[in-house]
Design brief:
Layout (H helix, E strand, L loop, with lengths): L1 H13 L5 H11 L4 H21 L7 H12 L3 H27 L1 H27 L1
Helix pairs in contact: 1-2, 2-5, 3-4, 4-5, 5-6
């Protein structure tokens, strides 16, 4: 089982960014499998993703489990695979921009910290409104 997981991970890593989840979806569709297994995976992935969104503000793994649930869904549903491929490309671009700005100067670092603080406080306020208002 461990060898199988390592093999799947290597295939996933070797896929081109922006195509990884669609490739995984197509590989999963060609595997012989029982329909009940696929239905259970869709239900489990959906519960994990939605449940994690609801509990994200609480202490614990937070948004990491949302992406885990979406990754499970992406193996069984093409729209989820497309969403994750689209998101991966955008997040890579955002990360590259942030690292470029961070490396430029002290002003770039201060700007990023201020923007992160504003976004975090806005998120905290939104969660406060959802839970207590």
């Amino acid at each position: 089982m461990i060898k199988s997981l390592k093999g799947h991970w290597e295939e996933f890593k070797e896929s081109k960014p922006g195509e990884r989840f669609k490739d995984r979806y197509h590989r999963r569709q060609q595997e012989p499998g029982h329909i009940v297994k696929r239905v259970v995976l869709v239900i489990f992935g959906a519960i994990l993703a939605v449940g994690s969104l609801v509990t994200a503000p609480l202490p614990g793994p937070g948004f990491a489990t949302v992406f885990l649930g979406l990754a499970i869904l992406a193996g069984e549903l093409l729209p989820a695979a497309r969403l994750l491929d689209w998101s991966e490309v955008r997040l890579r671009l955002l990360w590259q921009f942030v690292t470029d700005v961070w490396r430029t100067s002290l002003f770039g670092k201060i700007s990023l910290v201020v923007i992160a603080a504003i976004l975090a406080s806005g998120f905290a306020y939104f969660v406060y409104l959802l839970l207590f208002a």
